[in-house]
Amino acid sequence: MKITIYHNPRCSKSRQTLALLQENSPEENIKQIEYLKSPPSLQELKAILTMLNMSPLELIRKNEEEYKMLNINNSNYSDSELLKLMVENPKLIERPIVVIDDKVAVIGRPPECVLEFFN
């Protein structure tokens, strides 16, 4: 099983999710991407949203300063505009996102959500 975690090491939920992955899978199977340093591309973000079965707006962190500054809540941004904003402002992307074998994904909130892949 190949596991990719879009991770922010400063986030407690992200660290807890990573710890659960490490407890349940060999370390060499886990690829960590610090998405604030290496944000997903537009194509990667689209693929992640498809795997999550979510819209861009559903994956946006609503309490981030960027969300307020960009007036996302009171705007008529299209999905493609929201995707571009997320790539340009990765803090807007909900975390952590865990992708399994490039086929399915889950948000680690709560972290225990990732355990469904190990049952």
Plain-language structure description:
The chain has 119 residues and is of the alpha+beta class. The protein has a single domain (3-118), classed as Glutaredoxin. It contains four helices and four strands, in the order βαβαααββ. The protein has helices at 12-24, 42-52, 65-69, 79-88; strands spanning 3-7, 30-34, 97-100, 104-107. A four-stranded mixed sheet has the order 2-1-3-4, with helices on both faces.
Q: Roughly how many Å is the radius of gyration?
A: 14 Å
Cα distance spanning the termini = 13 Å
The parts where pLDDT drops under 50 for at least 5 residues are none
How is the largest sheet built, in terms of strand order?
Answer: 2-1-3-4
Which CATH class applies here? Alpha Beta
Summarize the main sheet: 4 strands, mixed
CATH architecture: 3-Layer(aba) Sandwich
What's the total number of strands?
4
Domains (count): 1
This entry's quaternary arrangement is single chain
Mean pLDDT: 95
| Secondary-structure element pattern, one letter each | EHEHHHEE
Report the total helices: 4
Q: Rough shape?
A: globular
Helix-strand blueprint:
Layout: E1 3-7, H1 12-24, E2 30-34, H2 42-52, H3 65-69, H4 79-88, E3 97-100, E4 104-107
Parallel strand pairs: 1-2
Antiparallel strand pairs: 1-3, 3-4
Top keywords for this entry?
single chain; 119 residues; alpha+beta; Glutaredoxin; globular
Short description:
This protein has helices at 12-24, 42-52, 65-69, 79-88; strands at residues 3-7, 30-34, 97-100, 104-107.
